[in-house]
Amino acid sequence: MLARIAVTAAILIAVALVLAILPSPKAEDASAGGPTFVGDVNCDGIANSIDAALILQFDADLIPSLACVQDADVNEDGFINAIDAALLIQFCACPIESLPPGEPTPAGLSGDVDCNGTVDAVDATLILQFDARLISRLRCQENADVNGDGAINSIDAVLIASLIISEDEGRASDRDTCLSLGSPA
User: Fold this and answer.
1) Residue 163 to residues 83, 144, 159, Cα–Cα distance (Å)
2) Which residue has the higher pLDDT, 87 or 80?
């Protein structure tokens, strides 16, 4: 189990480090009485992978508080956890266009455990975290058992990763287009 936790932590750290160099899109939220940025937990005016890393540290009780804790619950589910960090990383990499994300997609897309309508590395990471008991639930848990064996485990995450790798060539040009567009409106 310790090895699973280490692998999950290594994946999240690697993703955060890679995304730290990407442009940081902004997302406004006027619900706190003025313009703030959803996901901007360090109050620097941008929502980026550094904020995602801080959310993960806060969730793991490695840091006692967040400077802008009101902006940490990215998916507005009432909890500050790894799902918020995963959505923020996904936002920085452009697969989702706004924070908070829109309504969950209908159930049934196998592997789409965050209900954003796509199956991607965030879904695989969330399944690994669930399997390692780092998180207690998945937003669309009914989509997590990718191989249909009745268990949600690392095999399901590997199947998602295999799907992503097989589709990666076609997605490379889409990713370049997304990054060249800059910040979403």
Assistant:
1) 21, 14, 6
2) 80
